[in-house]
Amino acid sequence: RRERQRFVDKNGRCNVQHGNLGGESSRYLSDFFTTLVDLKWRWNLLIFLLTYTVAWLVMASLWWGIAYLRGDLQQAHGDAYSPCVANVYNFPSAFLFFVETEATIGYGYRYITDKCPEGIILFLFQSILGSIVDAFLIGCMFIKMSQPKKRAETLMFSRAAVISQRDAKLCLMFRVGNLRNSHMSRQTPEGEFLPLDQCELDVGFGTGADQLFLVSPLTICHEINSESPFFCLSQRSLRSEQFEIVVILEGIVETTGMTCQARTSYTEDEVLWGHRFLPVMSLEDGFFRVDYSQFHATFEVPTPPYSVKE
């Protein structure tokens, strides 16, 4: 069967694009900090470098402008003449003075004299502006580096889900593994078509079975009963149904303590009736071994072709 359009891709990316925003695109600028954090790393680094480069050049130009207007560039900086900034003769020396001041290096060769009130005001403005720029950009980079998005790449979901019996009950199951040490379509009785109608699948919320200790691959089980949206699903009707099971795994990264979310989805073509996952864990000399080469493998088991309702 031809693979149909998915709402959530297998890698967890939502297959939705926003278009024709018009004037609403300005909302991204109203929350510029979050927009900057959500950008890709290459754009973050480019903005980081450009912001500091432009700010340094502008402030160095202001210091050079003060020296130029006062005539300090043409005068000898001796005991008989008191410049605004000692030993600033051209733009490179003005730039070095700014960098020494901003980075609090203070070599002592270039310094502001008490005969320059405009230089004192510019120095105060530079200190305030530098603190704001540092707090904004460094805070943005820190938050972006601490985001656990890449942690989801070491979580693995099985390529297919299976339906078979477990403890004499028909269950929908899929497998999730850790590599590191619900949207459904339906038609209402009135004839209204709901393309993205959501229905929750119970995977043990009431009993605590959804709280996973994800050290080895686990099989998540949804019992198909009278409260399940698959109550009327049979092996025959599975061929004509259209649905998409969206799986959201959310947990805390142990190393950083931050929340991480991983997503995937299963369409009706990826649900195998009468199959079970192959075991991947074996006991060896002093430890348990997990064979990920069999992670996606399934095998057929005797399963009634009827729905739970039938």
TrEMBL record:
<keyword id="KW-0851">Voltage-gated channel</keyword>
<keyword id="KW-0630">Potassium</keyword>
<feature type="domain" description="Inward rectifier potassium channel C-terminal">
    <location>
        <begin position="155"/>
        <end position="309"/>
    </location>
</feature>
<dbReference type="GO" id="GO:1990573">
    <property type="term" value="P:potassium ion import across plasma membrane"/>
</dbReference>
<dbReference type="Pfam" id="PF01007">
    <property type="entry name" value="IRK"/>
</dbReference>
<keyword id="KW-0633">Potassium transport</keyword>
<keyword id="KW-0406">Ion transport</keyword>
<dbReference type="InterPro" id="IPR041647">
    <property type="entry name" value="IRK_C"/>
</dbReference>
<dbReference type="GO" id="GO:0015467">
    <property type="term" value="F:G-protein activated inward rectifier potassium channel activity"/>
</dbReference>
<keyword id="KW-0407">Ion channel</keyword>
<feature type="transmembrane region" description="Helical">
    <location>
        <begin position="120"/>
        <end position="143"/>
    </location>
</feature>
<comment type="similarity">
    <text>Belongs to the inward rectifier-type potassium channel (TC 1.A.2.1) family. KCNJ3 subfamily.</text>
</comment>
<dbReference type="GO" id="GO:0034765">
    <property type="term" value="P:regulation of monoatomic ion transmembrane transport"/>
</dbReference>
<keyword id="KW-0472">Membrane</keyword>
<dbReference type="GO" id="GO:0005886">
    <property type="term" value="C:plasma membrane"/>
</dbReference>
<protein>
    <recommendedName>
        <fullName>G protein-activated inward rectifier potassium channel 1</fullName>
    </recommendedName>
</protein>
<keyword id="KW-0813">Transport</keyword>
<dbReference type="InterPro" id="IPR003274">
    <property type="entry name" value="K_chnl_inward-rec_Kir3.1"/>
</dbReference>
<dbReference type="GO" id="GO:0034702">
    <property type="term" value="C:monoatomic ion channel complex"/>
</dbReference>
<dbReference type="Pfam" id="PF17655">
    <property type="entry name" value="IRK_C"/>
</dbReference>
<dbReference type="InterPro" id="IPR016449">
    <property type="entry name" value="K_chnl_inward-rec_Kir"/>
</dbReference>
<keyword id="KW-1133">Transmembrane helix</keyword>
<keyword id="KW-0812">Transmembrane</keyword>
<feature type="transmembrane region" description="Helical">
    <location>
        <begin position="45"/>
        <end position="66"/>
    </location>
</feature>
<dbReference type="InterPro" id="IPR014756">
    <property type="entry name" value="Ig_E-set"/>
</dbReference>
<dbReference type="InterPro" id="IPR040445">
    <property type="entry name" value="Kir_TM"/>
</dbReference>
<dbReference type="InterPro" id="IPR013518">
    <property type="entry name" value="K_chnl_inward-rec_Kir_cyto"/>
</dbReference>
<feature type="site" description="Role in the control of polyamine-mediated channel gating and in the blocking by intracellular magnesium">
    <location>
        <position position="134"/>
    </location>
</feature>
<feature type="domain" description="Potassium channel inwardly rectifying transmembrane">
    <location>
        <begin position="8"/>
        <end position="148"/>
    </location>
</feature>
